[in-house]
Design goal:
The protein is mostly beta strands and 78 residues long. Helices cover 0% and strands 44% of the residues. The N and C termini lie far apart (34 Å).
């Protein structure tokens, strides 16, 4: 079993990114993954994912989506 990270951030909190490419941006926490020490934040850390054609994505192609960001790079905003 992996070590579970104790975190000071909860789902629904508004956070500010304090390090990395998105430094200074803020957003609402959508999901916390304590097993990997990461959080999914709305509007921060976009990645491009290549999607195959399917019923969900009939066009396929490149889709931009949010990726997890390390909890150590986040600070709860007041």
């Amino acid at each position: 079993m992996k070590n579970v990270v104790k975190c000071h951030i909860k789902k629904g909190d508004t956070v500010i990114v304090i390090a990395g490419d998105d430094k200074g941006k803020s957003g609402k926490v959508l999901q916390i993954v304590p097993q990997s020490g990461r959080a999914l934040v709305e509007g921060v850390n976009f990645v491009k994912k290549h999607m195959r054609k399917s019923d969900d994505h009939p066009q396929g192609g490149v889709v931009e989506m949010e990726a997890g960001i390390a909890l150590s790079n986040l600070k709860v905003s007041e």
